[in-house]
Specification:
By secondary structure, the chain is of the alpha/beta class. Helix content is 39%, strand content 18%. The structure holds adenosine-5'-diphosphate and alpha-D-glucopyranose.
C-alpha cells in the first residue's frame, strides 16, 4: 500500500513529545511490512540541519507562499525511509520550536504555517508535484495536519484519509477572520466542517472529514467520547464511533533498550539487572545527590503541563521525602507555574531532589535507566510512552488509571503478582492522597530486593514493539480505502 505519513514532528529530526517518537518509528515499521511509505514534515531550520543529504525534487506554487515551495527529498536518518520536507523559508526557517517561539508562546502565524503545509501535502498525495507517486492512504496526525482531510475531500479521485488523535487537548482553534485570511474554500465552513462554535478548528477538520479516525490507546478511544475527555468534541466522536478505533503505540526498541542504549553508562538487562545500579549511581552523580544505593530513587520526565499531574507530584513530594529516605529526579520543561513549583521544591530539598528544567534527550534516557521508580500520575494520557520505556528499563512505573497508562500498567496486588501480571502501581483518583497511597504500596515491596527485582523484570520482558500496531494500522488503512471505494 502507498502511505503518506504526515506529521508536525518526527524523531530524530524534530520532537516535542511522544508524537515525534511515533512519527519516527511507525512509518519505518509500516515500510518493513512491504508498503511504500513516505514521511512528510515541514522543513524547520533545526530539522533541515539534522536531515543530512537532501535534494530538491519539486517546486510548488501554493496560495499563502511568497515564493515557490520547495519539496526536499532525503531519508529519515538511520533508515531507508524516504522523507519529504516542505520547505517554505518564510514559514519554517527560524529559530525556536516547531509550534512555539523561543519565548514559549505559540507562533502567531501557526494557522498560515500549517495551512501551507496541508496544501503541500495535498499536492504530494495527489501526485501533482511530478514525483510519480500517488498516495493510496494519507495518515494525518494531530491538529497541525487537520486541514489535510478536508482539503483532500475536495479532490477526485482522492486517497483515503486517516486521522490519528495523539492529544485532543491541542486543537488548533482560531477565529473566523483567520479562516477568511487563509483563503480556505467556503464549502469547508459549517457545523459539519471545520467550524467549531463560530471558530476555525484544525482538529475538527481532521475528525469530520477523515475516512477513519484512530487514537493511541483503546481506553482513550472510549474516554474521548465522554465530556470529561472530549473537550467539546465528544458528540462528533460518538457520532463517528463506527469509524473510530484505539491502537496502542509501540516502542522503538532500537532507541529505547537498556541493552544497547548509547545514552547510558552501563548496559544491562534481566540477567544483569544488578548492573542497573551503575546507572543509578551515574544519575545521582549527575544531579549531585548523595551516592546511596539503597535510597529509592523516583524519576519523572515529561512536559511540565497540567495533563501530566505535575501539581500532584509537587504536593506529594514533601510527604514522600518525610516518610522515606527517597531521592527524586525531575526532568522537564513546560508551563511557568509548574517549573516554578519544582524549582521551589528543589531549593527546599537540595540533597534529595535533582531538577533539570529543559529538554535533553540523553538525560531522559539516563533517568529511565537510573531511577528505581517512574512517576506518571497524568490527569489524562492518550497513550504515554515514558511508562512503556520504564517497563523496558526495569524502572517500575506508578501511574494513574487513565488512557494508555491503564492499557499498559497492571497494578500490583497479591493476586496479580501471583499470576505474574503485575508490572507497576496504579491509582484511580487524581489526588495527592491517591498518589501517595500508591507510593506507600510500592515502598512496601521496594525493601525486598528479590521481590522488587521480580516485579521490575516482569516489565522488562514485555514486548511493545511496533510490528503489531503497524499491522493494526494496515487493517484500518484497508477499511478507510473501502470507505472511499464504496463512497461511504
Ligand atoms: P507526551 O507525548 O504527552 O509528551 P509521551 O510519554 O508519549 O508524552 O512521550 C514523551 C516523549 O518526550 C518521551 O520520549 C520523553 O522521553 C520525551 N520527553 C519529554 N520531556 C522531555 C525532556 N524534558 N527532555 C527529553 N525528553 C523529553
Ligand atoms: C501525545 C500524548 C501521549 C502519546 C503521544 C504519542 O503527546 O500526550 O500520551 O503517547 O502523543 O501518541
Amino acid at each position: 500500500m502507498k502511505v503518506l505519513f504526515v506529521s508536525g514532528e518526527a524523531h530524530p529530526l524534530v520532537k516535542t513529545g511522544g508524537l515525534g517518537d511515533v512519527s519516527g518509528a511507525l512509518p519505518v515499521a509500516l515500510e518493513a511490512q512491504r508498503n511504500s511509505v513516505r514521511l512528510v514534515i515541514p522543513a524547520y531550520r533545526s530539522a533541515l540541519a539534522k536531515a543530512g543529504d537532501v535534494k530538491e525534487v519539486a517546486r510548488l506554487d501554493l496560495p499563502g507562499a511568497p515564493a515557490p515551495v520547495r519539496i526536499l527529498e532525503g531519508r529519515l536518518p538511520g533508515h531507508k525511509l524516504p522523507l519529504w520536507l516542505v520547505d517554505s523559508p518564510s514559514h519554517f526557517d527560524r529559530d525556536g520550536g516547531p509550534y512555539q517561539a523561543p519565548d514559549g508562546g505559540d507562533w502567531g502565524d501557526n494557522p498560515e504555517r500549517f495551512t501551507l503545509f496541508a496544501r503541500a501535502v495535498v499536492e504530494l498525495a495527489c501526485d501533482r508535484a511530478g514525483l510519480g507517486w500517488a498516495a493510496e492512504v494519507v495518515h494525518c496526525n494531530d491538529w497541525q495536519t487537520g486541514l489535510v482531510p478536508p482539503l483532500l475531500s475536495l479532490e477526485s479521485p482522492r486517497p483515503a484519509t486517516l486521522f490519528t488523535i495523539h492529544n485532543l487537548a491541542y486543537q488548533g482553534v482560531f477565529d473566523r477572520a483567520t479562516f477568511d485570511r487563509l483563503g480556505l474554500p467556503e464549502t469547508l465552513w459549517g457545523s459539519h466542517g471545520v467550524e467549531y462554535w463560530g471558530n476555525l478548528s484544525f482538529i475538527k477538520g481532521g475528525l469530520a472529514y477523515a475516512d477513519w479516525i484512530t487514537t493511541v490507546s483503546p481506553t482513550y478511544a472510549k474516554e474521548i467520547r465522554t465530556p470529561e475527555f472530549g473537550y467539546g468534541l465528544e458528540g462528533l466522536l460518538s457520532h463517528r464511533s463506527d469509524n473510530l478505533v484505539g491502537i496502542l503505540n509501540g516502542v522503538d526498541y532500537q532507541v529505547w533498550d537498556p541493552r544497547h542504549d548509547p545514552h547510558i553508562p552501563q548496559h544491562y538487562f534481566i540477567k544483569s539487572f544488578r548492573f542497573k545500579d551503575h546507572n543509578k549511581r551515574a544519575l545521582q552523580e549527575r544531579f549531585g545527590l548523595p551516592q546511596r544505593p539503597d535510597a529509592p530513587l523516583f524519576g519523572l520526565v515529561g512536559r511540565l503541563v497540567e495533563q501530566k499531574g505535575i501539581d500532584l507530584v509537587a504536593e506529594v513530594l514533601p510527604r514522600l521525602l518525610a516518610a522515606y529516605p527517597a531521592q527524586v529526579v525531575l526532568v522537564g520543561t513546560g508551563e511557568k507555574w509548574a517549573e516554578g513549583r519544582l524549582r521551589e521544591l528543589r531549593e527546599q530539598y537540595p540533597d534529595r531532589i535533582g531538577l533539570f528544567i529543559g529538554y535533553d534527550e540523553g538525560m531522559a534516557h539516563l533517568v529511565e535507566a537510573g531511577a528505581d521508580i517512574f512517576l506518571m500520575p497524568s490527569r489524562f494520557e492518550p497513550c504515554g510512552l515514558n511508562q512503556i520505556y520504564s517497563l523496558r528499563y526495569g524502572t517500575v512505573p506508578i501511574v494513574r488509571h487513565t488512557g494508555g497508562l491503564a492499557d499498559t500498567v497492571i497494578d500490583y496486588t497479591p493476586h496479580t503478582d501471583h499470576n505474574r501480571q503485575a508490572n507497576g502501581f496504579v491509582f484511580d483518583e487524581a489526588s495527592p492522597q491517591a498518589l501517595f497511597s500508591a507510593i506507600e504500596r510500592a515502598m512496601e515491596i521496594y525493601p525486598k530486593p528479590i521481590h522488587w527485582r521480580r516485579l521490575a523484570c516482569r516489565g522488562m520482558e514485555l514486548d511493545f514493539s511496533w510490528e503489531i500496531s503497524a499491522q493494526q494500522y494496515l487493517r484500518v488503512y484497508q477499511r478507510a480505502r473501502k470507505v472511499v471505494l464504496t463512497g461511504g
